[in-house]
Write a structure and sequence with these properties.
Blueprint: H1 6-23, E1 29-35, E2 38-44, E3 51-54, H2 66-75, H3 81-93, H4 101-114
Helix pairs in contact: 1-3, 1-4
Length: about 120
């Protein structure tokens, strides 16, 4: 259980998202099965195909292929941070007015971002 208020948790997660994203290679990112950087590369579309990550080789019969890892990393690139941070910040600032599930959803996102137990 957290000793912080819900609003403090939400603001901490919003800050972490923004601080981490600004240091990362700009997005959006794309996953390319075959590219100059190798198979299953995650590339920045902003910096002329700069390689962000290479997820390894495809292994036949593997349940979790490297291409799925690359697609996930590209999907969750730093360009997603600001909308998430804005949402968390908004819920924190309007906490007393929030009703129902939105509180739980926002806290779940914040705790996932910060690594805090639910």
């Amino acid at each position: 259980m957290s000793d912080q208020s819900p609003a403090t948790e939400l603001l901490a997660a919003a800050r972490l998202l923004r601080e981490t994203a600004v240091k990362a290679t700009p997005g959006p990112w794309t996953a390319e099965h075959s590219s100059w950087a190798g198979d299953n590369a995650v590339l920045s579309t902003v910096i002329g195909g700069h390689a962000v990550a290479v997820c390894g080789e495809e292994v036949r019969g593997v349940t979790l292929p490297a291409s799925a890892d690359a697609a996930w990393i590209a999907l969750m690139g730093p360009d997603k941070a600001e909308p998430l941070a804005t949402f968390l910040h908004h819920v924190a600032e309007t906490w007393v007015f929030q009703k129902g599930a939105i509180r739980g959803f926002a806290l779940a996102i914040a705790r996932a971002v910060t690594g805090r137990a639910a």
